[in-house]
UniProtKB/TrEMBL annotation:
<dbReference type="InterPro" id="IPR013785">
    <property type="entry name" value="Aldolase_TIM"/>
</dbReference>
<dbReference type="GO" id="GO:0046872">
    <property type="term" value="F:metal ion binding"/>
</dbReference>
<feature type="binding site">
    <location>
        <begin position="142"/>
        <end position="145"/>
    </location>
    <ligand>
        <name>substrate</name>
    </ligand>
</feature>
<feature type="binding site">
    <location>
        <position position="8"/>
    </location>
    <ligand>
        <name>substrate</name>
    </ligand>
</feature>
<dbReference type="GO" id="GO:0019323">
    <property type="term" value="P:pentose catabolic process"/>
</dbReference>
<dbReference type="InterPro" id="IPR000056">
    <property type="entry name" value="Ribul_P_3_epim-like"/>
</dbReference>
<dbReference type="GO" id="GO:0004750">
    <property type="term" value="F:D-ribulose-phosphate 3-epimerase activity"/>
</dbReference>
<keyword id="KW-0170">Cobalt</keyword>
<feature type="binding site">
    <location>
        <position position="66"/>
    </location>
    <ligand>
        <name>a divalent metal cation</name>
    </ligand>
</feature>
<protein>
    <recommendedName>
        <fullName>Ribulose-phosphate 3-epimerase</fullName>
        <ecNumber>5.1.3.1</ecNumber>
    </recommendedName>
</protein>
<keyword id="KW-0119">Carbohydrate metabolism</keyword>
<dbReference type="GO" id="GO:0006098">
    <property type="term" value="P:pentose-phosphate shunt"/>
</dbReference>
<dbReference type="InterPro" id="IPR011060">
    <property type="entry name" value="RibuloseP-bd_barrel"/>
</dbReference>
<feature type="binding site">
    <location>
        <position position="66"/>
    </location>
    <ligand>
        <name>substrate</name>
    </ligand>
</feature>
<feature type="binding site">
    <location>
        <position position="175"/>
    </location>
    <ligand>
        <name>a divalent metal cation</name>
    </ligand>
</feature>
<keyword id="KW-0413">Isomerase</keyword>
<feature type="binding site">
    <location>
        <begin position="197"/>
        <end position="198"/>
    </location>
    <ligand>
        <name>substrate</name>
    </ligand>
</feature>
């Protein structure tokens, strides 16, 4: 299996969203990554369920929904109703994380837990076998186009070691500051999925950029 790529729609042109979705449908992108922000957990607001409902009708790709919000467990039913494949919640936002993960799976979605840059991978030791994927933020969440945090490469390698030690099939996804150089180092460290926003959508040839990321 090659590197999987999940372009982040946060960096798309919202005045030409249908055009960008059609481009992603044609491309080799594996999933579409959707960042939902509430202005509380992160200092920004993005889009909500009406946009996701419309996207599901327009795209042929699985949706990877990343909730950068407080109390994400309140919206499990709404996310499930959109037909999302992955529901992605922050470790830092969930007091009863195991219960949230169980509820996500019960609704037919694949549970993913995200770690902010300052949160060590060791906090996932007990819950890792219950997760389909872990998302490591390689920038501080809330805005696109930020500079890559170098420690993320070592953090990816540490998480990969934990996955191999526990013999789970958990995927590693990394989001933030992804380009061909940082992406290659992350894949070499054990990343399975790269989330790329600005690098894809600001590219002159985004479909080719997605192809190059998949070849890493």
């Amino acid at each position: 299996m090659g590197t999987m790529v999940a372009p982040s729609l946060l960096a798309a042109n919202f005045l030409n969203l249908e055009r960008d979705i059609e481009m992603l449908n044609r491309s080799e992108a594996d999933w579409i990554h959707l960042d939902i922000m509430d202005g509380v957990f992160v200092p920004n607001i993005s889009f909500g369920f009406p946009v996701i409902d419309l996207l599901k009708k327009a795209t042929q790709k699985p949706l990877d929904v990343h909730l950068m919000i407080v109390q994400p467990e309140k919206f499990i039913n709404e996310i499930a109703a959109t037909g999302a494949t992955y529901m992605n919640v922050h470790y830092e936002a969930c007091i009863h994380l195991h219960r949230v993960v169980q509820e996500i799976r019960k609704k037919g979605m694949k549970p993913v837990v995200t770690l902010n840059p300052h949160t060590p991978v060791s906090v996932l030791e007990d819950i890792l076998p219950d997760l389909d994927m872990v998302l490591l933020m390689s920038v501080n969440p809330g805005f696109g186009g930020q500079q890559f945090i170098e420690h993320s490469v070592r953090k990816t390698a540490m998480l990969k070691e934990m996955i191999l030690r526990q013999q789970t099939s958990t995927l590693i996804e990394v989001d933030g500051g992804i380009n061909l150089e940082t992406g290659k180092r992350l894949v070499d460290a054990g990343a399975d999925v790269l989330v790329a926003g600005s690098f894809v959508f600001s590219s002159e040839h985004p479909e080719e950029t997605i192809h190059q990321l998949k070849m890493l």
